[in-house]
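Dear colleague,

Thank you for sharing your sequence with our group. We've completed the structure prediction you requested, and as agreed, I am returning the results in plain text so they can be pasted directly into your records. Please verify that the sequence below matches your submission; if there's any discrepancy, let me know and we will rerun it promptly.
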Amino acid sequence: VLARGPAPRIINLQGSVAFITMREFAQFLVAMGYPEEQVRNPKDGSFSYSSFVPSEQLAGMLAWYYERDGMVPMLIGHSQGGMIVIKTLYDLADVSPEHPIPVWNPLTDQAEARTTLQDPVSGRRRPVRGLRVPYATAIATGKLFRVLLGQWDMLGKLRAIPDSVEEFTGFLIEWDPLAGTFGNAEPYHATGSARVRTVALPADYSHIGVPVTLHLARNRATRRWINAYKPTSDRPATPGGVRLAQLHAD
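Please find the predicted C-alpha cells below.
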C-alpha cells in the first residue's frame, strides 16, 4: 500500500565507524514494501547517510523536504547516528530567534539564503526551528562514545527526548560494551509530551551488526511476523520463539 501512495521520507543515519552502514536496513524497508525513492538520498542515490552531518544541517534538510512534500521526514539513527537524531531534535525544539537555522537543499548539498519556509499546511511563512518530526529512533546509541569523541554536550540529553518529535523509540542492547551499557542502561524518557518507548534488545545482539536485517524480509516466517507485529512490550518477542540471530544463521 505504501509503495503506491505518498509516504514520508526516511533518513537512515549510520554509525561513526561504518563497517556496516544503514544500506541493508534501508533495503529491508524496500523489501517490506516501502517506496524506494523515499529511502534513497536524492543527490547520489545512496541508502545511508553519514552520522558526521551537522545537526543543524539535518534540521534544515527536514524543512526543505517538508516544504516540498508536505511531510516531515522520519529519522532513524544507528549508534552515533542516533546521537545526531537526538541532537537534531534539540535543535528543532530550540525556538529562540537569536540563531535561526537555514533551509538546507539536499540536491545541491548547500544552505539556501533563507531561514524560513512556506508551511504547506498553514500556507504561512515559518522558521525551521519549531518543526516537529513524526517519528524518530536511536539504535544502540550510548554515552561511552560521546565521551571518547568529545561530544560532552550530549551526555545529559542522550536519554531525554524533547517535544520536537511526536513518537520516539530507543533501542538498547542490554550488554553493549561499545555503547557502554552493562545490563542497566538508562531508559529513554520524554521531557514533555513526546511519546517515548525504550526497547531492550538481547545481550547477544551485535552493536555493529544490528542494522543487518534484509534477511528478515526474505524469510517467509519473519516477514509474516513483522507484518503482524504490534508493539505491546518493551522486550519484543521473536517469531515462534526463534531468535532472530538464529534465523540469520539459517
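Summary note from our side: The first helix runs from residue 23 to 31.

Kind regards,
the structure core
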